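Running this now, will post back.
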Amino acid sequence: MKKRSRKKMLSLLLTLALFAVNGTAQLTMAAEAEVKTGTTENFAILSGETITNTGTTEVMGDVGIHPGIEVVGLSEDMVTGAMHLADEVALAAKNDLVIAYDDAAGRTPQIISRELAGQTLTPGVYTSNEKDFLLTGKLILDGEGDPDAVFIFQTDTTLTTGSGSSVEFAGNATACGVFWKVGSSATLGSNSSFAGSILALTSITLETGATVNGRLLARNGSVVLDSNVITSGPCTQNQSATLHVIKMVVNRNGRTAVSEDFSVHVLKDGLDVSGSPDAGMETPGRTYTLEAGNYVVTEEPVEGYEASFSGDSTDGKVTLSPGEEKTVIITNTSSAGSIDLFKTDEKGNPLSGAEFTLYREDVEVGEPMSTDENGNITFTGLAKGTYKLKETKAPEGYVLSEVAEEIILTQDEEIVEISFTNTMILGRISIVKVDGKTGAALSGAEFRITDGKGTEVFQGETDDEGMVTAELPYGDYTVQEMKAPENYEKSEKTYAVSIVEDGQIIDLEVENTKMEKKAATLPDAGDTSGNIFLLLGGLALTGGLLLWRKRSAA
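Update: finished.
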């Protein structure tokens, strides 16, 4: 009996275990039922109090309000559907909204982090311990291959999304299956991309540029808009959209670029879509088949051309709704600004051969250029912006300018004139005259300096310290002694020197040899010229004595 009882007990436990396993499997596999929204299905916006809009907003779907009647700033031409202001249709939709709200609030949730950014969620019902939700980045909803997947988010207080945040889909999930039950109010940040139906007890606010792929349903409060795009309607969110990108080029100042010279990018979340980048193309342009979402059209810059956007975008940013077709035109116009540079010396004479480099944001603009015989350079084809002009090579014989001149072009085709002055390189030749034996300084020595053409450029005499100095510009020179000090022999040596740097000093020491004194000597015996002079002197003396005696006797 005991053995039989044990067998029955084991059998019962096995049966319960199998039931538990099968039951758990059925619970896990059971899909969350859709929230029935009734006649709100046709509404992109439904408000209980007021609807206020600033800027240009696009609404694809119906707009309704009940019991309020005030709609400010949202005209009929901004709405593709009908506008129901406190009529029976709006009342019926409000009643259906109450039912849908209560349905979403009554589901059993699982708890997740209040910050949704960075999460990838599968179908289910979610809430947070804080009873609110934040989204400051990207949230991915993965339908796991089920196009009817349902996601329900419950808050007792608020739903807040940050600027540039987004809700994105994977695994065939669609905005039609996403429901946000908000216990008070929802606020969507600027330029955010949101998806799903917001069922708010109070109000819904969209900041500038926010887009919604879904519905804004506020039971008791207001809906506030600011240059937004709201896309609603039948569940067609997985339909593709079409984007045409056309490249146009306007050439001026002899420029010859064509559309194919520009590389165009179509980006989603900072990454190139399929087929991007590609060379630009004129009308009809390049066509991209894309999922609904936010995109940026941009290009790789080409020096000397400025880009502008037109068509369905003025800045390259474009939002594509399911089934939508848009065109972005990029027009590149060759820049026409110019900088005229004039290079002179200190006397205003033009200098050729000065090399200048132009920079924009510390990047060289084109190749360095050199001044012509008129001292002129013209940088052309410049876009508006801030530039720096710097001399990178001075003319021969001049000091390099260290000035980096800032130039701002504020208008198209603006011409800015600027001048640079170079200072001539100056050096000094210092000559010291000394006795070759004693090293004593010698004054009175005259020196002459000639340039490379043989032209005299300096002449001077050493002072009491034996020095004479000449300040001369860049060049090659020859130094030569022209007159020696008294009682010294003149040096026949010449000195070739060159001044190549500003402030250069060339020291020359020139030695002189003192002349030797000669002793007195008698005439040679064979030299008769001396005897003749002696004879004549003797005759003159004798004659003088005779004359003196004769006068004395008388």
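Confidence is low (pLDDT under 50) at residues 1-29. More later if anyone needs it.
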